[in-house]
Specification:
Order of helices and strands: EHHHHEHEHEHHEHEHHHEHEHEHEHHH
CATH topology of the largest domain: Rossmann fold
Largest sheet: 5 strands, mixed
Shape: globular
Bound molecules: 5-phosphoarabinonic acid
Number of strands: 10
CATH class of the largest domain: Alpha Beta
Radius of gyration: 23 Å
Helix content: 40-55%
CATH superfamily of the largest domain: Glucose-6-phosphate isomerase like protein, domain 1
Strand order of the largest sheet: 1-10-9-7-8
Strand content: 5-15%
Distance between the termini: 59 Å
Number of helices: 18
């Protein structure tokens, strides 16, 4: 199992222990469905409730896409894409995943921005590809995703014909409402339902994440097993001192109370970049409300030690870090010896690249702790499906507990609507006439 090391968190054991009672209550409220946001607790026992039949259904759909496509575009934004991307990038070869390695379809992502160049270049790239689309939107109405899907649907139908398009376009959306559901029903697409009681950022273990991950060729059974084992390992019956989600929630809240307002999630493996992005959304949307919440930021080390390292070491002391540390890489690479030793690196000859990386990690921890940056480490034996499943559930459970400790509803995101209202008013969307007038007035004043 993955482990959490809080020994360098620079917070007293008493302060952490002080959260035990409150966390026990919070865990119980989650179990009983009596906490804030209790209509969105479907994620809590999701891993242990996924049936073998459902996995087979997903795998069959994935197989159809794998057999009929060299490229699959996943259209979705926020919780409807970050989890899938995080897992796929963490498990993929850093250089082959964008250049179809022959065995697996190339997975591309769209519908997560409105960049004209991005969409133009995507449609150009797809021109000679046998591509399919997984259209993911819980509401079925998200503008970014709907715009991309409109373009992709048309191109897929024109390139591959309506009949094939019908086979290689899959919808993952609400059971009844939203434009994505209407379209899927009308066109007869294979579709999967996003459960009502699972919010976007908690949905990676629903078809939202599982289908794209299976299409990419990864073992979703192991992913779900890892999550289910973590569900057990963080259950209310597990003692506080052994429950890593409870410990993480306690430490970060203790630090927040001491003025540590920013948490950075750190990796030393570039493949984890999108895991950082997924985590940022999970914690940002869950906790950042009512004028409260730790600001979730993320860095890729050692890369960002050369950009953000100075701030972290010596900037305002309002920051703490959580390092996702991978114990064993998949591959082995030794530094060669060089007769001339012009670069002076012969002292590393015969050492593994990872040994240098690990010393960078340890050296950074020592320096940051000396600089007053509390440090937690999530220790992960290796990057595989099982451990990623554990990481996902560990962070989800801790997030639910942590948000409730802050006294906010961790499962809503009312603030996300503000920009949408303005954008629709500015674009003159029917139904927004009053807002359009108001916004024009504001811009002209
Ligand atoms: O966590 C959330 O609820 C959001 O990030 C959504 O996932 C995101 O806005 C996309 O919404 P939808 O799936 O409705 O298109």
């Amino acid at each position: 199992m993955i482990k959490l090391d809080i020994s360098k968190a620079l917070v007293s054991a008493d302060k952490v222990a002080a959260f035990e009672g409150k966390i026990a209550e919070t865990q119980q409220a989650l179990e009983n469905g009596t906490c804030a946001g209790n209509d969105f607790l479907g994620w809590l026992h999701l891993p242990s409730s996924i049936t073998a039949e459902f996995m087979t259904e997903l795998q069959e759909c994935a197989q159809t896409l794998r057999e009929n496509c060299d490229t699959v575009v996943v259209a979705g934004i926020g919780g409807s894409y970050l989890g899938a991307r995080a897992v796929i990038e963490a498990l993929s070869n850093s250089f082959q995943w964008l250049t179809n390695n022959g065995e697996n379809p190339t997975i591309l992502f769209a519908g997560n921005n409105i960049g004209e160049d991005y969409l133009y270049e995507l449609t150009e790239y797809l021109k000679d590809k046998k591509f399919g689309v997984i259209n993911i939107s819980k509401s079925g109405t998200t503008t970014e995703t709907a715009l991309a899907f409109r373009l992709l649907k048309k191109q897929c139908e024109e390139q591959r014909g309506k009949d094939v398009a019908r086979k290689v376009i899959v919808a993952i959306t609400d059971a009844k409402k939203g434009a994505a559901r209407t379209c899927a029903n009308k066109e007869g697409y294979t579709s999967f339902i996003i459960p009502d009681n699972v919010g976007g950022r908690f949905s990676v273990l629903t078809p939202v994440g599982l289908l794209p991950i299976a299409v990419a060729g990864f073992d979703i059974t192991k992913l779900v097993k890892g999550a289910a084992d973590m569900e057990q390992a963080t259950a209310p019956s597990v003692p506080f001192s052994e429950n890593i989600s409870a410990q993480y929630a306690a430490v970060r809240n203790a630090l927040y109370q001491e003025g540590k307002k920013i948490e950075i999630l750190v990796n030393f493996q570039p493949k984890l970049h999108f895991m950082n992005e997924w985590w940022k959304q999970l914690y940002g949307e869950s906790e950042g409300k009512e004028g409260k919440g730790i600001f979730p930021a993320a860095v890729d080390f050692s890369t960002d030690l050369h950009s953000m390292g100075q701030w972290i070491q010596e900037g305002e002391r309002t920051i703490f870090e959580t390092v996702v540390s991978i114990e064993e890489p998949e591959h082995k690479l030794l530094f060669p010896s060089d007769e001339e030793n012009l670069d002076g690196l012969n002292f590393l000859a015969g050492k593994r690249v990872d040994e240098v990386n690990k010393m960078a990690e340890l050296g950074t921890q020592l320096a940051h702790v000396d600089g007053g940056v509390p440090n937690m480490r999530l220790i992960v034996p290796r990057l595989d499906e099982y451990n990623l499943g554990q990481i996902i559930y560990f962070f989800e459970k801790a997030c639910g507990i942590s948000g409730l400790l802050l006294n906010v509803n961790p499962f809503n995101q009312p603030g996300v609507e503000a920009y949408k209202k303005n954008m629709f008013a500015l674009l003159g969307k029917p139904g927004y006439e009053k807002e359009t007038e108001a916004i024009k007035g504001r811009l002209n004043s």
